[in-house]
Structures are given as structure tokens and as C-alpha cells.
Write a structure and sequence with these properties.
The chain is α/β, with parallel strands linked by helices and about 350 residues long. It has 2 domains: about 210 residues, NAD(P)-binding Rossmann-like Domain (Rossmann fold, 3-Layer(aba) Sandwich), CATH 3.40.50; about 90 residues, UDP-galactose 4-epimerase, domain 1 (Alpha-Beta Complex), CATH 3.90.25.10. Helix content is about 45%, strand content about 15%. It is built from 12 helices and 13 strands. The protein binds NADP nicotinamide-adenine-dinucleotide phosphate and guanosine-5'-diphosphate-alpha-D-mannose.
């Protein structure tokens, strides 16, 4: 019998890579998606199209982390062995503008899912393994560099505060109700499928368009912030590995390197033979009320116990993202040449 996995946030960057990974392992993959007035499935469209057999093993269900009834219904219908909670309002800057909504989705949404799983395990008698998408943002105003599983949290945004709540709920459900629940404390991870408003993708998309003459300026905020950027495709393997262990635990997943936004600009514009200072302007609207200045992870526990290590370097990640965005920009340029507005 195939293992069944349920993923919240399946339409997001990580949801798409995790789906691919689990399908590759032979799983039946189910995803919770929100109803929207337009398509949100562009990142997972190819999983339907890959093969008929795959189509049967990949299913989407309408639901919402803020709708506990929908979570209970999906869980009892599917009877999953593994549940990955990736759903979130995941944009840190937006969380300052929508703090209550962010806290609801990230904090209470996680609690809703854990409660549904508690009932499922206690009353239906099914053992389930739970992965919580915790975040390096929880370290915030960092107490030490690098940050590991024992570093104290100091969250600096409504998003990060809500992630701390979800982190501790995950541990509490593990200890109180014997649920196999793990926190993956993941540092920033990017890809060609990264949302366009996160800084790396904003830069690779704009630089590609600038290269092809489709735009001439890029407006950014704090260029001095430093992040530990890895490749999302590498990181979903660590999520899965956590749920294959003998005992549940919490792990940091990171590259161990840190780079500033400025260095990412150097890498991307340099690859395109451009000088970013000719195009980048600072716009105060992109600064945050409180900033996280530096993140740098110590993933030695994941390396020792899970046998996990990152494969894609900082430079290869930037180039992979530029190559993908250049292809899109070329299609846009062709449309412009044909007289269409893009
Ligand atoms: P993402 O691309 O922003 O995807 C977020 C997903 O959550 C989307 O599928 C979104 O659906 C869904 N979602 C939003 N609100 C929801 C709700 N109320 N109910 C159900 N689903 C909802 O994020 P990501 O980069 O893949 O990150 C995945 C998870 O890891 C998130 O929890 C994020 O906070 C966390 N994380 C990310 C990073 C990183 O660097 N990427 C690092 C650490 C932790 P729609 O498509 O309908 O909007
Ligand atoms: N988004 C954005 N847009 N960020 C900018 C900009 C800009 O125009 N200019 C500078 N930055 C800086 C931000 O101030 C921040 O210091 C850094 O670039 C990274 O910002 P994001 O790419 O938005 O990511 P993040 O680090 O705030 O959050 C991401 O990583 C977290 C893990 O540490 C998100 O994926 C979170 O969901 C995730 O938990």
C-alpha cells in the first residue's frame, strides 16, 4: 500500500518541490488548497500533466487552515500517514500590515491542524507524523552567530512571533499527546519558483527584464541585511528525513553561509554583465519597522542525524534563478516585439 502524505500550502514554492519529491518516493500526495477567483496552481500544474499514473497519485482538496472543519474532513477522507504544514501568510513585511491575519493563519492555523490530528490519532486510532514549517525568522535579533537548535528566539515581526507560537504548540502536542511532531527550522530557501515579492526573486526577475530592455529600474529596501540562502529543492528532502526517524525532534536546516542583499545583487547583475548600481534605487517603503540583520544557520545536527547537507551553492542558486527568469523575459520581449503590452 502506498504511503499517503497531506500537504498544506501545496500551491506555494515548498509545496511544489515537496510534492515532486514525495511522488518520486512513490507516495500518494494530497494537498489542501484555498479557493481563489483565479488559478493558483501554476507551480504544480506539471504534476497533473506528467503521467496518468502520477495524476491518480496527486490530488487537491479545498480547505483552509482557518477552517477547522475542512481540515478534519480532508484528514478523515485521506487517512494520511504524514502531514506537512507548509501553509502560511509567509511574507514578513506584509505581516506588519496584517498582523492579526498573519497570527491567525500561522499560529491558530497550525493549532487547528494539530487539534484535528490529535482527534484523528486518539479517536480514529491512526498514528500520524507531523512536520511544522518553522522559520529562522524566530531568531530575529540574533543572540549568537551562527544560530542552532539551542539558540534563544527573539522574534522581530508579527510573522516571526506567530511562528514561535506554532513552534511551541508543535512541541507541546508531541509531549502532551504523543504525536510524532517535528519542527524544521529552515533558513531562507529560494528557487525559480520563489514568490516574486521576496528579495532574491524580485532581483533575478528585474535583472533579467533589465537585460532585455523590458524595465530600467529596480526599487529595493535594506541592502545590508544578510541571509543564509539555500535551494528549496534541497530543503524539502530534510523535511521528509525528519519524519523517517525513530523519534520526533527539531532540526535547523541551513547552508552555514551568510550573504548580504548587496552580494546577491553583485552575483546576479555580474552574471548578466551589468552593474547593479546603474539600476537599483532605494525606496523607503521596503524597509521594515524592525529588521533581522543577519541569519546564519548551523545545520550540524541535521547533517549528523539525518545525513542531510545542501547541494546547491549560493552562486549556482543565483544563476539558476536568473536562467529561469531570462527565459520568461525572452517570451515577454517577443510579445512586446509583436506589439503586446506585458
Ligand atoms: P509560499 O510560497 O508563500 O506558500 C505559502 C502557501 O501557504 C501557499 O500555498 C498559500 O496558498 C498557502 N496558504 C496561505 N494561507 C493559507 C491558509 N489560510 N490556509 C491554507 N493554506 C494557506 O511559502 P514557501 O516559501 O513555500 O514556504 C512554505 C512554508 O515554510 C511557510 O509556512 C513559510 O512560512 C515557511 N518557511 C519558508 C521559508 C523560505 O525561505 N521559503 C523559510 C522558513 C520557513 P495560496 O497559493 O492560496 O496563497
Ligand atoms: N521582500 C523584500 N523586498 N525584501 C527586501 C527588499 C525588497 O524590496 N529590499 C531589501 N530587502 C531585505 C529585507 O528587508 C530582508 O532583510 C531581506 O531582504 C530578505 O527579505 P525577504 O526575501 O522578504 O525574506 P525574509 O528573510 O524576510 O523572509 C523569508 O525567509 C524567512 C526565513 O528566514 C520568508 O520566506 C519567510 O517566510 C521565511 O520564514
Amino acid at each position: 500500500m502506498r504511503k499517503r502524505a497531506l500537504i498544506s500550502g501545496i500551491t506555494g514554492q515548498d509545496g511544489s518541490y515537496l510534492s515532486e519529491f514525495l511522488l518520486g518516493k512513490g507516495y500518494e500526495v494530497h494537498g489542501i488548497m484555498r479557493r481563489c477567483s483565479s488559478f493558483t496552481t501554476h507551480r504544480i500544474e506539471h504534476l497533473y500533466q506528467d503521467s496518468h499514473e502520477q495524476e491518480v497519485r496527486f490530488k487537491l482538496h479545498y480547505g483552509d487552515l482557518l477552517d477547522p472543519l475542512s481540515l478534519r474532513r480532508v484528514i478523515s477522507d485521506i487517512e494520511p500517514e504524514e502531514v506537512y504544514n507548509l501553509g502560511a501568510q509567509s511574507h514578513v513585511k506584509t505581516s506588519f500590515e496584517q498582523p492579526a491575519y498573519t497570527a491567525e493563519v500561522v499560529g491558530i492555523g497550525t493549532l487547528n491542524l494539530l487539534e484535528a490530528l490529535r482527534d484523528y490519532q486518539d479517536h480514529a486510532g491512526h498514528a500520524v507524523r507531523f512536520y511544522q514549517a518553522s522559520s529562522s525568522e524566530m531568531y530575529g535579533n540574533v543572540r549568537e552567530v551562527p544560530q542552532s537548535e539551542v539558540t534563544r528566539f527573539y522574534p522581530r515581526s508579527p510573522y516571526a512571533c506567530a511562528k514561535v507560537f506554532a513552534f511551541w504548540q508543535t512541541i507541546n502536542y508531541r509531549e502532551a499527546y504523543n504525536i510524532f511532531a517535528c519542527n524544521g527550522v529552515l533558513f531562507n530557501h529560494e528557487s525559480p519558483r520563489r514568490g516574486e515579492t521576496f528579495v532574491t526573486r524580485k532581483i533575478t526577475r528585474a535583472a533579467s527584464r533589465i537585460k532585455l530592455g523590458l524595465q530600467d529600474k529596480l526599487f529595493l529596501g535594506n541592502l545590508d541585511a544578510k541571509r543564509d540562502w539555500g535551494f528549496a529543492g534541497d530543503y524539502v528532502e530534510a523535511m521528509w528525513l525528519m519524519l523517517q526517524q525513530q523519534d520526533p525532534d527539531d532540526y535547523v536546516v541551513a547552508t552555514g553561509e551568510t550573504h548580504s542583499v548587496r552580494e546577491f545583487l553583485d552575483e546576479v547583475f555580474g552574471y548578466l554583465d551589468l552593474d547593479w548600481s546603474d539600476y537599483v534605487e532605494i525606496d523607503p517603503q521596503y524597509f521594515r519597522p524592525t529588521e533581522v540583520n543577519i541569519l546564519q544557520g548551523d545545520a550540524s545536527k541535521a547533517e549528523a542525524l539525518l545525513g542531510w547537507s545542501p547541494k546547491v551553492s549560493f552562486s549556482d542558486l543565483a544563476r539558476m534563478m536568473v536562467d529561469a527568469d531570462l527565459q520568461t523575459a525572452e517570451q515577454e520581449a517577443a510579445l512586446v516585439a509583436a506589439g503586446y503590452a506585458v
